[in-house]
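P.,

For your records, the input lines for the assembly:
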Amino acid sequence: MPDGSHLTGRIGPNAVLQLAPAMDRIAGEAARRALFAPLGFDPLPDATAMIDETRVAALHQALRRNHPDAARAIAIAAGRGTGDYILAHRIPHAAQALLRALPARLAAPILTRAILAHGWTFCGTGTLAARSGPPVVFTLSDNPIIRGEMAPAPLCHWHAAVFERLYSRLVPPKARARETACHATGAPACRFEIDWR
Ligand SMILES: [Zn+2]
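Structure tokens returned:
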């Protein structure tokens, strides 16, 4: 078991699986396998099983450490891929059509509540809370993917990209998500603002 195994949190497999095509495209398959293999992710994990969040964090940390120039673009592409997966498999298409037909002021709170209800799948033992907007503000306390890390700028591009994909597909297309504070920079929690004005 990895260090931190006292934490029993688990995260949905997209936090690992969606990094793979993004890395293959941006850094190359050989680089991806070299990164994934020491952490036990080569071959890729089962798409149906939740993954120990400490292993997910180790992979995201290794990506940032070993590919400092490409990590941000890879995390964003993986976040978009995760959003696309959720749209294809987790939100009924009739509900998506309804959200798109509603004005943003009505659709956004419905989407926000749905994300909060399923937040455990991408927040593990972190605590997700939200405030209506615009901007919608999500705060993620004790985000396991960056736990113990320090950085001069926000790190949680994967989470921001997941939020942006969902709001831009289901609320207005111009919705944009930004991480405005990150626990890795010393803020009390990671904070994401989604705005479409
Ligand atoms: Zn953060």
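Two observations worth noting. The chain has nine helices and six strands. Residues 10-195 form a domain with the H-NOX domain fold (CATH 3.90.1520.10).

Regards
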